[in-house]
Design brief:
The chain has 228 residues and is of the alpha/beta class. The chain has eleven helices and eight strands. The structure holds erythose-4-phosphate. The site of erythose-4-phosphate (E4P) has 11 residues, from helix 7.
């Protein structure tokens, strides 16, 4: 499963790209609006940080297919071939996905709440489908179950469309979609950090550091001892 960052915050993206094996960035209108900066400046900065080789998923905001298609084309012109227009699975959105896929665009079908929506989007030619795990859990639906259903459908019908799981609030949800066979998970930087938090890891590293410092001195590394 690939890891993506779900944020439009350039500082956080730079920090996470430096530390983690992140395959790209997803944004949505809410995340963009939160930054309180001009839309194109934000995306230009994100592209500069992640480079041409990383995926950048950007949502269109038009509500009719024609506008969505034009937005998608403009986004790809400005931000390169690794830019995936995100299009919600409305009837107009589905039409836009089909038009774009037929002209060679890689599209991410988003705001998915049910397996059949993902199957329709895949049939329309979407490269990725994005089910919203935590938002489903919050309305008493089974977010991970929806992801598992999509994975099963794509595999049963031999579809190459990938499942880009989104909307997570805890590490357990991320683990559960990975076990269900999701191809990609996008999450906030804080959640990515939390994956590495484990009491055993923390106490283990603290113990090693303390024992080493007592024997060789605080701040001393193996490099300092090379000539001894
Ligand atoms: C996915 O593409 C969306 O950007 C996002 O994951 C929604 O997450 P939220 O439920 O945390 O807003």
């Amino acid at each position: 499963m690939l890891f993506l960052l779900d944020t439009a915050n350039v500082k956080e993206i730079a920090r996470c790209f430096d530390l983690f094996p992140v395959a790209g960035v997803t944004t949505n209108p809410t995340l963009i609006a939160r930054e309180k900066r001009p839309f194109y400046d934000i995306l230009t900065d994100i592209r500069a940080v992640i480079g041409e080789g990383s995926m950048l998923h950007v949502q269109v905001v038009g509500t009719d297919a024609e506008t969505m298609v034009t937005e998608a084309k403009q986004l790809r012109d400005r931000f390169g071939a690794g830019t995936f227009p995100k299009i919600p699975v409305t009837p107009q959105g589905l039409k836009a996905i089909r038009i774009l896929a037929n002209s060679g665009f890689h599209v991410t079908a988003t705001a998915i709440g049910a397996p059949l929506q993902a199957l329709l989007a895949a049939r329309a030619g979407a490269s990725f489908t994005a089910p919203y795990v935590n938002r489903l859990d919050n309305i008493g639906a089974d977010g991970v179950g929806v992801v598992a259903g999509i994975v099963r459908l794509f595999s049963a019908y031999g579809l190459s469309t990938k499942v880009l799981t989104a909307s997570f609030k805890n590490v357990q949800q991320v683990l559960d979609v990975a076990l269900a066979g999701a191809h990609t998970a996008t999450m906030a930087p804080e959640l990515l950090n939390l994956i590495l938090h484990h009491p055993l890891t923390d106490s283990g590293v603290a113990g090693f550091n303390a024992d080493w410092a007592e024997a060789y001195g605080a701040g001393v590394t193996t490099l300092d001892l090379a000539s001894v």
